[in-house]
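User: I'll paste a sequence; please echo it back and then give the predicted structure.

Assistant: Echoing your sequence first, then the prediction.
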Amino acid sequence: MNVNNRIRRSPEESKSLILKTAADRLTEFGLEGLNISGVAKAAGMSHATVIHHFGSTAAMREALLQQMTDSLLSDVISALNEDVQPDEVLSRLFSTLSQGGHGRLLAWLALDHQGMSVLPSESNTSELFRSIIEAISDVPGEETDAKLRVLLVATAAMGLSICGDALSNLIGLSEKESAEFPVWLAQHLEKLLPST
């Protein structure tokens, strides 16, 4: 890259561009697309610039997961402020975790930090899940049922994100049938939700 053609960006603009590019590559290529070299090239930056802002591929992935989780948390809080029904809150969680690589990235982080009691992005992720649990819990203080519903949705969404295509093929589901899974799950979750 010619030095005279470099675009000057603030550190915040550079980080934002790197994370936007990383998110795009996660959606397009999966976790394999989240490497310093690929992200730097796609963002039109030098490898050294990305290293300067994040230090490593792992740190960049963690920052991307944090940004994605913050966005989902904001969406859930907005839904709660609008008195969105509990099944819609769970549906949004499922959609976010199963698409765009969020679930894969969360699974990678969990696997990468096996044996640790705390994940690097745990605070916002915990806040996200607590908000959802409070929103769908019918009896304050007795939240086990709500926690189990959130666990079911998160596990299903992450599983779909990680190996949904392969499992669908093994099970013999067509692409159309597989696409119906989120709606099917939502309908069955309605039976588990308290009547409002």
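The CA atoms of residues 40 and 46 lie 6 Å apart. The first helix runs from residue 11 to 29.
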